[in-house]
Amino acid sequence: MSEDAISLFDIDTLKNPYPAYRTLRDTQPVYFEEALNIHVVTRYDLVREGIRDTETYSSRYDQFLAGSQMVVFQQASPEVQQQLMAIADQMVETPPTMLTLDEPDHTKYRSLVNQLFTVSRIKSAEVAVQAIIDECIATMSPGPVEFMSVVGFPIPLRIIGDRLGIPLDRREFFDKAATQAASALRLTPLTGEALLDRTQTAVDLQRFLIDLVDARRANPEDDMITILANSKLEDEDRLLTHGECISVLNQFLVAGHETTSSAFGWGMLLLCQNPQLQDELRGDAKLIKTFVEEVLRLEAPVQGLPRLVTKDTVLGDYSLKAGDMIMLRYGAANRDERQFEAPDELDIHRKKAGAQLAFGAGVHFCIGAPLARQELNLGFASLLNAGRNFRLGETDSAPEAEASFILRNLPRLDIVYDAI
């Protein structure tokens, strides 16, 4: 593939970006993507440099997100645009909290939620997580099954719903709202009707979360929203505003279910494509951990995130100016042959498989990574104990990723397996 012909926004490239990544790593490791006016970084060492040098490459990339949403807005008809503005007027303003802040502001928010993801708290939740996994797997049958709707989506949604403290009678709404909140990051085209529905659901979700925060302040319970609602910013000696709470919770919704659902789907597809590994993995917790890291490396659920260039600089041998926006492409770095031997192959014996960047690195390393790994390690162990000879079902089309720029997901996966 010639670098002159590459556009990461090509539909086919969005669905399978890896040939394009390979070409760019070798020829233009920092590449200007005109469609989004952004410089895309694809080589592992340069992505790591962008992650580590937070002074030069700032996480204050709100303008990128706002600009991306404006592109989606401008594609709508004038009538839909008017309706969207009327709905958006009802939304509570959400200030930047963790993901789009630099130090020291980033730490003051992250320190509040670190207690939600301590090793002891994650370990203590293992029995409850395993119970949800077992319940979902029990609904499967050896005959044809659509894996994502039965296992891939429900497990992470139920777990994050439980951890947050979402009332059972509101779970159907919460599942829809959380899924749509994540879909906004895919940067995929939507019909006017779908865009209106997503925007209204976002408003309804805000109202729901605000009511829940207020309820937990009045009557605390043992859940994440209670901790968030009643924690104070030490330097200001105050509770979080509603907007700050929503900002943090929105990040939990994406990190807490979308990325894990994606990894479940890609992991099962890889098992179906590599059936010889199933017996080797079954019952071996250590190998399953490496398998999970390989799934995250090969199919990073978050393909990349932007950074704002704060001063004129050079990345590799590529000149950047203050105000430029770069995209650190984790999905490309994870398949860099300079870092990983045979990078396109699944290797359950790979040493240092955890060097993959699917969860980012540095101060912005995904705070929910321990929970995601717990769900995936327990989940695949339980799946392999429940069945064997997992294989693709007979359908008219092969499994295919959604055409998405930031998130990489597998919306449907039809499988068949044999009972043990």
Element-by-element helix/strand order: HHEEHEHHHHHEHHHHHEEHHHEEEEHHEE
Oligomer: single chain
Distance between the termini: 45 Å
Radius of gyration of CA atoms, rounded to a whole number: 21 Å
Named CATH topology: Cytochrome p450
Content of β-strand: 5-15%
- Derived structural class: alpha+beta
- Average per-residue pLDDT, rounded, comes to 91
Total separate domains: 1
CATH architecture: Orthogonal Bundle
**Which percent range fits the helix content?**
40-55%
CATH class: Mainly Alpha
Q: How many individual β-strands?
A: 12
- Please give the count of helices: 18
User: Quick one: overall form?
Assistant: globular
Strand order in the sheet with the most strands: 1-2-10-7-3
Q: Low-confidence parts lasting 5 or more residues at pLDDT below 50? A: none
CATH level-four homologous superfamily name: Cytochrome P450
Report the major sheet: 5 strands, mixed
Descriptive notes:
The chain is of the alpha+beta class and 420 residues long. The chain has a single domain (3-419), classed as Cytochrome p450, CATH 1.10.630. The chain has helices spanning 11-15, 18-27, 44-52, 62-74, 78-88, 105-114, 119-124, 126-138, 147-152, 154-164, 171-183, 192-218, 224-230, 242-273, 278-281, 285-298, 330-333, 369-386; strands spanning 30-33, 38-41, 57-58, 145-146, 232-233, 238-239, 305-309, 313-315, 318-320, 325-328, 387-392, 414-419. A 5-stranded mixed beta sheet has the order 1-2-10-7-3. It has a 3-stranded antiparallel beta sheet with strand order 4-12-11. A two-stranded antiparallel ribbon has the order 5-6. A hairpin with a 4-residue loop joins strand 5 (232-233) and strand 6 (238-239). Helix 8 (126-138) packs across helix 18 (369-386), helix 11 (171-183) packs across helix 12 (192-218) and helix 16 crosses helix 18. 39% of the residues are buried.
